[in-house]
């Protein structure tokens, strides 16, 4: 099999198995926390602890992938994910809330695999096929989110500890597959720890990256997109439980639907859509869909309305994420893709640090609709930024 096809295939498998684990535990997390005496604010703090460590360490992993290769960073990330899920299972078994925090901190510290997979795809694709390749990553995300809640629901019959333990086993399987089959796309260079942490590194600093207007706007769009996405993770299970009486089973199903919408778009449609309309127009259209979906969920009291809102949100995110990844990779150039994509993921990590805590506070202190209306406001800012500051760009 040619290297390009091998990289695309194993990047898809890696992200798919990783997101299966994510899809298993995230819909259930608010219920786990509630059973341990926590609140909506506690859920927000737990998710923020993951995102804070991701924010701090993903750029380091991104730079490292530029220096020692993508494959090694992916393996480290997968091993950390397996350990974190095992800790999550143990915390659930012994009903120890602080251990949940520790498990998510470990996961955040080693969560560089998606950025490394994006960089690997950018290494082996040209400008014409890059959005389609990034869509392959998104398809893995979508399929993982479809199957994850289903597996989590099935495993929960054996006990609350079973879903995260299944997620840990899948991460180990992912590690084994990447170890034996994932090819390296970038030749490793000699590097010291001092180089990686930035003391003598010649790779771009964050300041150098954001001095380019295009990259700064892409980072801002990453931040805003993940800001309103984090609203769904924290408060959708809570608002539907209050308004519709939904439990873990129904929440798992709607998260699966959300992932299915993203899978259809990113797995089969995004390449043709990108060639027809371009990344800028798709980001604007996707942000409009996301804003409408958030507003529908905010004020809905019926099952059909919630489903429509999630379909709109899933469709919007389905086109936004691969387009943003493509723009970041093209603006970075071949020598610093890992670093720039790592910074981009950290922009999303900053949003996932602030967003869950803010969503939990808004939900608890203002009302169930507040996190969703504020998320719609973030989507509106995204529309404005993309319309005013992003300009059509010649393929790199």
From TrEMBL:
Transmembrane segments: 7-30, 42-61, 73-91, 97-121, 133-155, 161-182, 215-239, 251-270, 282-299, 305-328, 340-364, 370-390
InterPro entries in the cross-refs: MFS, MFS_dom, MFS_trans_sf, Sugar_transporter_CS, Tet-R_TetA/multi-R_MdtG-like
Membrane topology summary: Multi-pass membrane protein
A Pfam family annotated for this UniProt entry: MFS_1
Cited CDD domains: MFS_SLC46_TetA_like
Keywords for this protein: Membrane, Transmembrane, Transmembrane helix, Transport
Superkingdom, natural source: Bacteria
Gene3D superfamilies in the cross-refs: MFS general substrate transporter like domains (1.20.1250.20)
Occurrences of domain Major facilitator superfamily (MFS) profile (ranges): 7-394
PANTHER family xrefs: MAJOR FACILITATOR SUPERFAMILY (MFS) PROFILE DOMAIN-CONTAINING PROTEIN (PTHR23504:SF15), MAJOR FACILITATOR SUPERFAMILY DOMAIN-CONTAINING PROTEIN 10 (PTHR23504)
Similarity field: Belongs to the major facilitator superfamily. TCR/Tet family.
Job description of the protein: Resistance to tetracycline by an active tetracycline efflux. This is an energy-dependent process that decreases the accumulation of the antibiotic in whole cells. This protein functions as a metal-tetracycline/H(+) antiporter.
Record protein name field: MFS transporter
The organism of origin for this protein: Pendulispora brunnea
